[in-house]
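To the structural biology subgroup,

Please find below the input and predicted structure for Ciliogenesis and planar polarity effector 2, which we are adding to the shared reference set this quarter. The sequence is reproduced verbatim from the submission form. If anyone notices a discrepancy with their own records, reply to this email rather than editing the shared folder directly, so we keep one authoritative version.
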Amino acid sequence: MPPNLKADTVRYKVFISGKSGVGKTALAARLTGLEIPNVHYETTGMETSVVFWPVKLRESGRVLFFHFQLWDCGENVMCRFDHMLPSCEEQADAILLLFSFTDHGSFEDISNQMPRLTDPSDRVVRLVVGT
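Predicted structure (tokenized):
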């Protein structure tokens, strides 16, 4: 991209949720271009990562930078510390609810996650993602 090209930045906070072992950290690594861990370990706290994706709108030719802030928190940590979930949800624009195709229980857990992550009055986008 030429350095003289002006690009507006659009910011989004994305919370990645799901049972332990479904691939939350691997998805965040994949989206940010980092190496995917070979061995599973539960995230011991809250991890955030940032990725910028440039886009050019077809109709107007306008260039934007999407600034995605990805929030990943270990399931057990969220259960132990009451402040973790509200911190992850605070000002979130989207929540990715992950399940693993190799763990049927993680798919069934989506219905348990929905009530605690759903408020009809907010405008948060919720996506269910199979890994």
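Summary notes: The first strand starts at residue 8 and ends at 18. Residues 21 and 40 are 7 Å apart (CA to CA).

Regards,
Lab coordination
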